[in-house]
Every structure is written in structure tokens, then in C-alpha cells.
Design a protein that fits this description.
The chain has 227 residues and is mainly α. It contains 11 helices and no strands. The termini are far apart.
């Protein structure tokens, strides 16, 4: 009986050891899988942290608001215009539609946005000769001249805009500043400041005005090569 009992105990011990081995192996396996998943998660998290989605989110928010507005007005997507795509920041779609419809205004605006003013100027000038009171086209044409560092022409075009936004005033102020005319620059910086609640622009304009006022608002010339 003692021998039989000993064998049973030995069998139980052997089974317990086997179970213990499997349990240890299972725990190790779980730890390995968990470690792999954690590492993979961290890699994904790091990759996501490196991507700036702010512009995409802003564009999508504009698109959603515009789409909701269009739904209320009963407008279908197939009736979207270049103006709509410009408003929501979908410039590629705006350009595609502008080319499709041979819309020189928005093709020109597209070239201003992607920083090719040499192609924007002739298109917007041609459009402007037929639509001299289109203030949006004038604003982009003026900015195209500004990008070419043709500041006198930029000011001449922007001055034609009857209802100037704060951005137009700001562009004119910078153009005058680049020409060394601090007096007129101060005038347009001030008008820009009183025309916007945008905190980023307001802080920037205040800094510009502080520098101009220290200079005494006198006309002066930028050192050669600083423009």
C-alpha cells in the first residue's frame, strides 16, 4: 500500500511539475506577445506624434462646414465652384476645376498660392482687364507682384481695392516698409490692426508698429541686399 501511495504521490508531483512548466511557458509567451504589442504601439505612437495633422484637420473642418451649409441650401457637390474650393482650402480641386472651365482667375490664384507669381501675374492681369472691380482677383494680383518684390506695382494694384481687408492693409504696409516708407507703412499697419480680431495678426502688427514708431516714422532705405 505504501508503495502504491508513493507512486501516486510521485505521479501527482510529476503532473504538477508538467503543469508548472506549461504555466511558466504560458506566462513567458504572454510577456513576449505583450512586449511585442507594446513596442509596436510605441512605434505607431511615435510615428503619429511626428505628423502635424493641424492643417488637415482645419481643412476637413472647413469642408464639413461648407458641406453642411450646402446641404441646407440644397446644393449638390457636382455644383461646387472654384470659389468654394478656395474657401475650404482644397487648392488642387480648385485648380482642376479652373483648368477644366478655363477660369483664368482661379488658375492665377492657384499659381500665387503655390508661389509661382511669374505665371500668376499675366493670368490675373488679363482677367483684371475684363473684370476691373473683382477685388479678390486684385488682392491676389497685388500679392503676386509682392512675391516678385515689385512693391510699387503691388501697392498700385492693392490701392484699387475699395473694401480692403486687414490682410490687404497688412500687405500694403509691408510693401511700403520694404520700400523704406515707414510713414505710409505705419498708416496701413494701424488700419490692419483696427480691422481684425485675429490675435496672431494683432500681435504681429503691434510688434511692427513698435519698431516703426521707434524709427520716428521717417522714410529710409533698406541696406542693399536686405530686401
Amino acid at each position: 500500500m505504501a508503495t502504491l501511495g508513493g507512486k501516486r504521490i510521485a505521479g501527482i508531483i510529476t503532473k504538477l511539475k508538467t503543469i508548472h512548466i506549461y504555466a511558466v511557458a504560458f506566462v513567458i509567451g504572454v510577456a513576449v506577445v505583450a512586449g511585442y504589442l507594446y513596442t509596436d504601439h510605441k512605434k505607431l505612437q511615435n510615428a503619429l506624434n511626428k505628423v502635424d495633422y493641424s492643417q488637415r484637420i482645419t481643412r476637413e473642418e472647413k469642408s464639413i462646414k461648407a458641406f453642411e451649409s450646402d446641404l441646407k441650401a440644397g446644393i449638390h457637390k457636382t455644383t461646387y465652384t472654384c470659389e468654394h474650393f478656395l474657401a475650404i482650402g482644397d487648392y488642387n480641386e480648385m485648380y482642376r476645376l479652373a483648368v477644366q472651365t478655363n477660369n483664368k482667375k482661379y488658375i492665377g490664384i492657384y499659381y500665387v498660392i503655390i508661389n509661382i507669381p511669374s505665371q500668376a501675374v499675366p493670368l490675373l492681369s488679363q482677367y483684371g482687364s475684363l473684370h476691373p472691380f473683382d477685388e479678390e482677383a486684385l488682392a491676389y494680383l497685388g500679392y503676386a507682384y509682392f512675391k516678385q518684390k515689385n512693391y510699387p506695382q503691388a501697392i498700385a494694384v492693392l490701392s484699387k481695392i475699395k473694401h480692403k481687408s486687414y490682410k490687404v492693409h497688412y500687405d500694403m504696409a509691408v510693401a511700403y516698409e520694404k520700400m523704406g516708407d515707414f510713414t505710409d507703412a505705419e498708416i496701413h499697419y494701424t488700419q490692419a490692426l483696427t480691422s481684425t480680431d485675429d490675435p496672431v495678426y494683432r500681435n504681429l502688427i503691434k510688434e511692427k508698429l513698435a519698431v516703426l514708431r521707434v524709427s520716428g516714422g521717417k522714410r529710409w532705405t533698406f541696406p542693399q541686399g536686405s530686401q
